[in-house]
């Protein structure tokens, strides 16, 4: 067995909105995670890596310091951390497509709103003071940022601040508290980050191997394999219609001169409309297949 120092360390959220999806991503990349939900760390059985289960707020620090080479964290948490740093010590290596949310300014429904100028001189409660401060500076607005660690939606009711700046996904929480969103400050999704701290060649290879698998997982999510038959004169129209496909494979059909099979990996979603357009060019026997694994 490898010594601890020879294993990669990957930080993911222990419990919360990102924890299950972070585990699922690593599982899809082929990592067999030893279970034990309440533990602080878990060993990956079939890759030289250990998972660290931590509070999401600690993930940027761990990755920046190189304690963990990789981490999965909300873009919002990362951005808030980085705005407090002189130089970026983390690098975003993939946007993961889950944990989407928006940092929004909101106010009680009857608050007059004429754009960000309405914030001038106001107090705004938020858990993301640096992101908000930067937003205000960019809009040349002078306002007082009040930091709260949770329950930000209560600030107007408690007369802590008439405005809030908080994460929203469906908007249901705002609505339940009589608030309405007035402005978007930051769009977020979960990201994969790696440490910028230099590592040994062997360690670099472990990281690169895992990143290439994760790229494969992300690419496969939308990707489809398309097969169809078509007469020669339709081939260029068909190539133009295949979404996100480079250089399709074209094979002659046995005993059907002038007819070909077209095979292609489409990197984008394939919709019924696309199939109808393909058919209209003269294509037939169109098959769309899921792709289980892909290495780019
Ligand atoms: P921890 O115990 O790890 O500190 P937390 O309470 O700070 O957890 P969660 O509420 O689990 O964090 O949210 C984790 C991340 O999920 C957020 O930072 C954000 O990137 C994302 N997220 C997605 N939708 C929402 C939402 N509606 N509200 C808050 N966060 C959301
Ligand atoms: Zn947190």
Description:
- By secondary structure, this protein is of the alpha/beta class.
- The protein has three domains: 8-98 and 190-220, 3-Layer(aba) Sandwich (D-Maltodextrin-Binding Protein, domain 2), CATH 3.40.190; 101-187, Periplasmic binding protein-like II (D-Maltodextrin-Binding Protein, domain 2, 3-Layer(aba) Sandwich); 224-290, Alpha-Beta Plaits (2-Layer Sandwich).
- 26% of the residues lie in helices and 31% in strands.
- The protein is built from eight helices and 15 strands.
- The chain has helices at 19-28, 59-65, 75-82, 129-138, 172-176, 201-222, 235-241, 272-280, and strands at residues 8-13, 41-43, 49-54, 70-74, 90-95, 101-108, 123-126, 144-147, 163-168, 179-188, 190-195, 224-231, 249-252, 259-266, 284-290.
- Strands 2-3-1-4-11-5 form a six-stranded mixed beta sheet, sandwiched between helices.
- It is globular, with a radius of gyration of 25 Å.
- It starts with 7 loop residues before the first strand and ends in a 6-residue tail after the last strand.
- The mean pLDDT is 94.
- Residues 13, 16-18, 55-57, 74, 76-77, 99, 101, 167, 169, 188 line the site of adenosine-5'-triphosphate (ATP).
């Amino acid at each position: 067995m490898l010594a601890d120092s020879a294993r990669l360390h990957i930080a993911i959220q222990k419990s919360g909105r990102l924890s299950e999806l972070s585990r699922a991503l690593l599982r899809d990349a082929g990592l067999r995670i030893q279970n034990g939900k309440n533990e602080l760390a878990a060993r990956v059985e079939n890759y030289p890596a250990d998972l660290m289960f931590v509070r999401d707020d600690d993930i940027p620090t761990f990755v920046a310091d190189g304690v963990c080479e990789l981490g999965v964290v909300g873009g919002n948490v990362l951005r808030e951390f980085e705005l407090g740093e002189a130089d970026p010590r983390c690098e975003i290596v993939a946007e993961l497509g889950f944990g989407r949310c928006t940092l929004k300014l909101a106010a009680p429904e009857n608050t007059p709103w004429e754009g960000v100028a309405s914030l001038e001189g106001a107090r705004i409660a938020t858990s993301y003071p640096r992101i908000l401060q930067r937003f205000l500076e960019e809009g040349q607005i002078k306002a007082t940022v009040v930091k709260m660690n949770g329950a930000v939606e209560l600030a107007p009711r408690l007369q802590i601040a008439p405005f809030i700046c908080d994460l929203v996904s469906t908007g249901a929480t705002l609505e339940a508290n009589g608030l309405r969103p007035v402005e978007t400050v930051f769009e977020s999704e979960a990201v994969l980050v790696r440490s910028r701290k230099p590592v040994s060649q062997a360690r670099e290879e472990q990281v690169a191997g895992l990143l290439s698998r994760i790229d494969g997982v992300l690419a496969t999510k939308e990707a489809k394999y398309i097969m169809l038959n078509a007469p020669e004169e339709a081939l260029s129209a068909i190539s133009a219609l295949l979404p996100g496909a480079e250089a399709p494979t074209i094979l002659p059909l046995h005993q059907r001169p002038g007819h070909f099979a077209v095979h292609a990996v489409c990197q984008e979603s394939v919709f019924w409309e696309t199939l109808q357009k393909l058919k209209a060019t003269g294509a037939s026997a169109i098959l769309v297949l899921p792709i289980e694994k892909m290495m780019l």
